[in-house]
Amino acid sequence: MQRVCFLLKVRADRLDEYRERHAAVWPEMLQALSDTGWHNYSLFLREDGLLVGYVETEDFTAARAAMEATGINARWQAEMAPFFESLDGARPDEAMTPLTEVFHLA
């Protein structure tokens, strides 16, 4: 199982709404994530907007591609894009650059 961690930055003026949106993720989006191999997917949000994402998957590249092939993902990404800083025209899921793991306690 591949463990993936990534960072994004939520706009300070959108933190409360971002939390609200993630307290009620669309059931179709949850199902799509599960169906495309996203396991133990978590998002952690710091008060300054730093977002830390963590997911376990067999193949992150394949899991991202499978999500991209769903219609629900395109709609979710379009709705979430305005919440983030520094996407440089990318969708939020395209900006999820994995961090390099330097230690893991097995």
What is shown here, in short?
With 106 residues, the chain is an alpha+beta fold.
How does this structure look, described?
Helices cover 35% and strands 22% of the residues. It has 106 residues and is of the alpha+beta class. The protein has one domain: Alpha-Beta Plaits (2-Layer Sandwich). Strand 2 and strand 3 form a beta hairpin.
Labels describing this entry:
106 residues; L-rhamnose mutarotase activity; alpha+beta; 3 strands; three-stranded antiparallel β-sheet; Rham/fucose_mutarotase
Task: Spell out the blueprint of helices and strands.
Blueprint: E1 2-9, H1 15-23, H2 27-35, E2 39-45, E3 50-57, H3 60-68, H4 71-80
Antiparallel strand pairs: 1-3, 2-3
- Characterize the biggest β-sheet: 3 strands, antiparallel
The strand order across the widest sheet is 1-3-2
Name the poorly predicted regions: none
What proportion of the residues form beta strands (DSSP E)?
15-25%
Oligomerization status of the protein chains: single chain
- Helix content bin: 25-40%
Report the mean per-residue pLDDT as an integer: 95
Q: Output the radius of gyration.
A: 14 Å
Number of separate domains = 1
* Structural class computed from helices and strand pairing: alpha+beta
The number of E-state strands comes to 3
Cα(first) to Cα(last) distance is 12 Å
